[in-house]
Amino acid sequence: MLYRENGQFKTSYAADQQIFPILQDRVAIGVLLAIAFVVVPMFGSDYLFRAILIPFLILALAALGLNILVGYCGQISLGTGAFMAVGAYAAYNFLVRIDGMPLIAAMLLGGLCATVIGVLFGIPSLRIKGLYLAVATLAAQFFTDWAFLRIGWFTNNSTSGSVSVAGLNVFGLPIESAVAKYLFCLAVVCVFALGAKNLVRSAIGRQWMAIRDMDVAAAVIGIRPMYAKLTAFAVSSFIVGVAGVLWAFVHLGAWEPAAFSIDRSFQLLFMVIIGGLGSIMGAFFGAAFIIVLPILLDQVPQWFGIPLSTATTSHLVHMIFGALIVFFLIVEPHGLARLWSIGKQKLRLWPFPH
Amino acid sequence: MKSRPFALAAALAAAGLAAPAAAQQANEQFFPLLVYRTGAYAPNGTPWANGKQDYVKYINATGGINGVKIAWEECETGYATDKGVECYERLKGKKSSLIDPQATGITFALTDKAPVDKIPLITLGYGLAASQDGGVFKWNFPLMGSYWTAADALIQHLGKKEGGLDKLKGKKIALVYHDSPFGKEPIPLLQKRAQMHGFELVLLPVTAPGVEQKATWLQVRQQRPDYTLLWGWGVMNSTALKEAVATGYPREKLFGVWWSGAEPDVKDVGANAKGYSALALNPHGTDSALIKDILKKVHDAGNGAGPRDEVGSVLYMRGLLIQMFATEAVRTAQAKFGAGKVMTGEQVRWGLENLNIDDKRIGELGLAGLIRPLKTTCTDHMGSTAVRLHTWDGSQWKMQADWYEADKAVIDPMVKEAADRYATEKQIKRRDPSDCNA
């Protein structure tokens, strides 16, 4: 009833090609952004920001980057944690070695370093595909783990191998309080999500999808597989690298290579699969499912005053969470984003389904 | 059908928003207990967590701290830094006045946050060695020892065995360590000692969590070090001991840090680990008056956190001791800011900085003769570096008699240098002497 597009006519190509062609969607997104930028900072608690929203935003950004590679270009990667680590350590080195390095510049340079490493480890994708490629990208994971643990230069010769940053600021504004950190992450995520959305709608995005759907056919119609695959690796690892910088600088503050272990790579891959392959929105759904849901589940017994021991609760969370993953993948193998779009489709016909 | 998952998610979210805050009385001192009872390190984390909980219950059973009851809530970290940060954020809002992060990685992450939130960190026997310097680390309290004092005590012990530190010249000492900040911390001190006494230091890292050590022990077999120091945690320790057995490396030449010297580490290896020694940061056993009282007032009342036969084990006692110092800090703070009142984080910090656990107090606590006096000051946040070693006789740990203290001439300049470096990196100023009297 409320959600239908009857009477919304497009009179120009620009209007027809906008990201949200339906007025209700545009309003909803506008309201969502207003809530995220204005209402939440006014009323959110420190806990909400630091423990839930900031990790959610940063890992959603990383999932977004990975989704470009896995969801749009069909190149399975298990090296996401490695590219995050490259971004984080590169940005750290730019920050401590160059006086007066602005945070944003360090972040982007960190992303660029991740791009270089990403493309380097993407080269095997020209010869190997699918699960074989996933195994090949594991090399990136092991290599960075080794490098950041063993080569003292990367950690500025920190004796413990743990590095930390302090006194972050953007254009003179300190990124110290929870709200400032949240707003900074939110702004970065919004910019990158918009950029990624437009990229996947452009010519290069269509090339990625053609390669994903059938690379031989794509090559026949004139798409260069090398160019398409390596650009997907480059864009993906750039975004992932920036997410790594945010994770290290803004969320943790002090970190060691374990923060970007293989577990992180798996976690992000699951986010992409559960959220929805080949969907920008899916990255956010996936991150919410994987990050926020276990934290909520963990606190459920306490809300209802059920006396459970810490260990039991923790085990229960793992079991319920695992069951939910199976449930969602059976109900909709294309992920939460697909469920969302089915829901929207039904709403457009409501209350008169065919 | 399709809408059901959303309904479920919505119900969960709604429950989250409507959830009542956990019941917490206004006149209770709140201690958040970060624990890990699951994951790779659970066998070690569980007795530690139970010890902490039992002491809180014991204090409450004996009338609280000058009448102030202790409220507590556990949060499972699984030894993961990001989960630990989440726990910290979750619990700090409930007027947390003191936190024991229970993991080196989490300590590193919280060291930046503590000064902002004004919550002191108590890192008994772990954390950042440089945080002994209260002039820079106003909110960190590595009571009783750091990895540097531990390494120093071990080298002194080896020197004593050889008949003098100068006899270590030309010897080869290997360090088998957990490849994480925890394992790397002692390296600077060992390097300094190696330089001073002329022994050769061989560094042998083991990737976390440490179940795969074949390559490491192959190197031990090749290099045949005169002594091997073990810097492991959790499953790494028993694996190392098994590998030492397989390699034929004499257990008498193997010395562990205090995190490598508890029951879970040697139990699987049993009689094969006989002769292995490790630092004993705390006493163990059930002979002390305190433990007898806890067994009576907590466990006999059916209130114990864990199994009864775990009481008195090494890690249980460590958890207990941590909570004991936390309680004493509140008590000390109450002496200045008002007995019978709930102390804020800042007041507890003052208490931690002015702890004076002398022999008389140790007797009152029921630990007579088992721990050394501990006195913290504004500049020294450690209070005491006294430590003993204990040796596994095949069925239980046997305490050795000698106490070791870290050599101030070696430790102090290193601590100062590291703290200064940290202060420069973080752009913080060393505390003014006037700040100490506040």
UniProtKB/TrEMBL annotation, chain A:
Location in or out of the cell: Cell membrane
Transmembrane segments: 27-43, 49-69, 76-95, 101-123, 130-149, 179-196, 233-254, 266-296, 316-340
Bilayer disposition of the protein: Multi-pass membrane protein
UniProt cross-references to InterPro entries, sorted A to Z: ABC_transp_permease (IPR001851), LivM-like (IPR043428)
Pfam name, any one: BPD_transp_2
Keyword Membrane: yes
Keywords: Cell membrane, Membrane, Transmembrane, Transmembrane helix
Keyword Nucleus among UniProt keywords: no
The protein, known as: Branched-chain amino acid ABC transporter permease
Source organism (scientific name): Thauera sinica
From TrEMBL, chain B:
Domain Leucine-binding protein residues, every copy: 32-393
Keyword Chloroplast listed: no
Signal sequence region: 1-23
The entry's keywords: Signal
InterPro entries noted in UniProt: Leu-bd, Peripla_BP_I
Pfam families membership: Peripla_BP_6
Family: Belongs to the leucine-binding protein family.
Name of the protein in question: ABC transporter substrate-binding protein
